[in-house]
TrEMBL record:
Protein name: General glycosylation pathway protein
Keyword Transmembrane helix: yes
Transmembrane residue ranges: 12-33, 53-75, 95-115, 127-145
UniProt KW keywords: Membrane, Transmembrane, Transmembrane helix
Provenance organism: Acidihalobacter ferrooxydans
Amino acid sequence: MRSVYESFSTGVYLLAAVALTLLSISIMGWSVFEVIDTMFLAKRHLEGSFVPVMLQSVGAIVIAVAIHDVAKYMVDEEVLRTKELRSAVEARETLTKIIVIATIAVTTEALVYIFKAGMRDLSLLVYPVLLLFAVVLLLVGLGVYQRLSFQVENGNKKT
């Protein structure tokens, strides 16, 4: 019974990973289409929407890569690999990668919002500044995690 459930669970992870990969490819394709449309097909580049579209496309592609990375993680860890406990080094590397991708995505969104707020109303700059503050907290948290986990890894090697 356990093997049936594990096979079913692996199939669900594989299905979710395939769906996430298709979604990430769709997001990337749509972003590239938006850039091409803005640059060559539409008159929007004359209306001052060129930079916001470019920044939004960059943000969307970064998010699509993050989605694909989650799908890759699911396949690597839940489909291809046997279900054993990972080492502390692997866990730290994986978490670091995810936090860095999230940081890039949030930073890109903050830049988009800064640009939009600068064009509309400077009082709206509070929200992008809060996003940038969140990025700083993410980086500080990642640094603390890295330091603590590195100390644990070194402590484990000495014994």
